[in-house]
Amino acid sequence: MDTMQMTLYDVLRMVIAFLLVITIVFINALVMGYLERKVAAKIQRRWGPMEVGLQGWLQMVLDGVKIIAKQLIVPRDADRVVFRVAPLLSFTPVVLPFLVLPFAKNLVGRDINLGLIFIIAVSSINVLSIFVAGWASNNKYSLFGAVRSVSQNIAYEIPILLSLLSVVLITHTYSMQGIVAAQGTVWFCLVQPVACLIYLVSATAETNRAPFDLPEAESELTAGYHTEYSGFGFSLFMIAEYANMFIVCAVATVLFFGGWHGPFSGEYLGVLWFLLKVFLLMLTMIWVRWTYPRVRFDQLMNLAWKYLIPFSLVNLLLTALIVKCI
Amino acid sequence: MSSVLAIDYMYVMFFIFGGLLTAFLPFVIAWLIRPKTVVTNRSHQTYECGIEPFNQMWDYRFGISYYLYALIFLAFDVDVLYLFPVVTVFDRVSAVRGVSEFFIFIGILSLAVIYAWTKGVFTWEKKKA
Fold first, then answer.
1. Rg (chain B; Cα; Å)
2. Total structural domains in chain A?
3. Is the minimum CB–CB distance between A322 and chain B shorter than 8 Å?
């Protein structure tokens, strides 16, 4: 009897959590799409979108309507079923990490005790969807983009794992709320500066952002893995990319920048601090994109294998040593 | 299985199927509201920057280096996974034993990178003309 009541309550909570998460994913894509165009324009001394609404803020909404009405083209030579499945496969896993992100002290979808591992596991499905999309398109640009993306993502996954592990060595828990709670007095970006730096660099590479955006380098591969996609298929890839940016920045916020901690962060107001930190990090990623030129592919791979991985291994060893000495 | 764990799984399954449905719904909407489109003979051609497509994609080769990187990744990443349970219980073992075993494990682990480095996996040779 007792379990039945709990289930009804949980079902309601689950549905509301899901609707909120979907709202965040779509609004995040709109806001980030607008911000990216506007910040890029300001950096290049242009105006950016100006026509629709004040400062062009309605532009992304209209673009969304337009893109839904666009023709969905499946190329003749493509693997038809797999080609259609790939966008769905890219969108579905980006919804899952939002389940465990702690937005505020009492505002979290579900505080799973393996939250961090869950996020790492789920976000690596994204690589698979990129490869599926590139392979099924039967297009040379798509395939090369996909191959690059896979080798880049698996290379940068290791420094991410190692830098996250050195934080968990201090907290001894994978629960996202537990990690945030451990940073009440001092943020981990001060305790673990090397891990923080390594994570931020690898996160930029993991989301295929410039200067590591080799998989979709437009000057050589037109658009990389989504060259053949049109209409909402393309749109799902873009939404997933922006949601992935949100996720890596949110993980960075939780692990290194104190999560929802801040002045006046009560039971729920911490969400403002959390979103502020996440959006500052995402603005930094946009800023980096329009500042640095794209690297060469062997430089990209060797940055991970020759520098980031050895440094994060040494950092992990030092952390283990210091944790035991104190 | 405890009920907390069962609810965890329920959430995850709900989010997976909900996510799939959310990704699928816009396609239905697009199918309903789309204007009438003209399909020409070339609409479904593979994109090739304006020229007639030639050959299939699997006629092309990419560098062997990608394969080697994937191999080191397998050797390395699977071993890193063993560290995941270790770091959660690291405070429960004695200092000497914990640190020394940690150093031995990481030492053996980094041999994979050192081996690949000395074998020249990380140097990309210039293509000979």
1. 26
2. 1
3. no
